[in-house]
Amino acid sequence: MTEVVAGFLAPCQQNYFVCRVENFSKGKWQVKLKKPELQCHANFKSKSQKYLVRNELTVKPATYSARISTDIPLYETPGALFDQYLEDKPRIFNAMFPDKHRSQQLNQDEWRIKMLPLQLLILTVWPVVDLRLRCKSRGRDYPPEVPRDITKVLELDITRWELQGLNNGVDQSHFALIVKGTLYPDRRGNKCRLGGHLEMNISFVLPPALALIPENVRNSLGKGIMTKMVESMKQKVGSSLLADYSKFKRERSDKRV
């Protein structure tokens, strides 16, 4: 008895079904659609041709995002304002990403970084990103979240990315990564503060096995992971920048002596 077996993109026993060929001629062949939606197509033109049975799994991309703000006391000194510090973009980059073995400068505004592995649920990816740093002042083309009376703002965003060392069935064409951030001195009020925002968005198509996890469970885990990631980035960037800014102030002070 001839049988045709059609399966999903990844092996999983509960996702296989069997269609008996003799049922095509008798009009008895039926497939009941269940979630996730299963579509089965059969094409045949003559007895000499082989039957073609195609199975498709319709999967909606999973999207996870996190956004945090920075509000840290900032102690400036005359002749070494934070505005002046932000203008030295290579110095800013080296303070945020001190591992020179994983980065290279592409031009005056962009650097390529081999990031540490990102762990997303059971997926692990190694992004390589092109990071752009741009200084803006006097309210010109500021991002919406930055007040227009801020004197200077450093804008950070990813212009290009690729994934290396893919595993667990992640298709690079089904993966999207967006990272945007800002840093600026906020002198409104009695004291100056380091203000900023960091936002990360990741979208990817789940492998069939992972798609079987309830959506509310996936969303809760994904949100928790993303929040931890951006909080870790915030702590590292904030501490590194403030430490280097203190060094910047000492260097300026020594030059005036």
Short description:
By secondary structure, the chain is α+β, with helices and mostly antiparallel strands. It contains five helices and twelve strands. A hairpin with a 4-residue loop joins β6 and β7 (110-114).
Counted up, domains total 2
Strand content: 35-45%
* Main β sheet profile: 8 strands, antiparallel
Corresponding CATH superfamily of the largest domain = START domain
Structural class: alpha+beta
What CATH first level of the largest domain would be assigned?
Alpha Beta
Please estimate the helix content: 10-25%
Please, how many helices? Answer: 5
Roughly what is the average pLDDT, rounded to an integer?
A: 75
- Compute the CA-based radius of gyration: 27 Å
Q: End-to-end distance, in Å? A: 95 Å
Runs with pLDDT <50, length 5+?
Answer: 1-58
The coarse overall form would be: elongated
CATH topology of the largest domain: Alpha-D-Glucose-1,6-Bisphosphate, Chain A, domain 4
Name given to the CATH architecture of the largest domain: 2-Layer Sandwich
Instruction: State the order of secondary-structure elements, H for helix, E for strand.
Output: EEHEEEHHEEEEEEEHH
**Number of E-type strands:** 12
Properties at a glance:
257 residues; alpha+beta; Alpha-D-Glucose-1,6-Bisphosphate, Chain A, domain 4; 8-stranded antiparallel beta sheet; 12 strands
What would your notes on this structure say?
Mean pLDDT is 75; it is low at 1-58. The protein is 25% helix and 37% strand. The chain has two domains: 3-57, no CATH class; 62-256, START domain (Alpha-D-Glucose-1,6-Bisphosphate, Chain A, domain 4), CATH 3.30.530. Strand 6 (103-105) and strand 7 (110-114) form a beta hairpin. It has helices spanning 22-26, 82-86, 89-96, 208-211, 215-256, and strands spanning 3-6, 17-20, 38-43, 52-57, 62-73, 103-105, 110-114, 118-120, 123-137, 152-164, 175-186, 193-204.
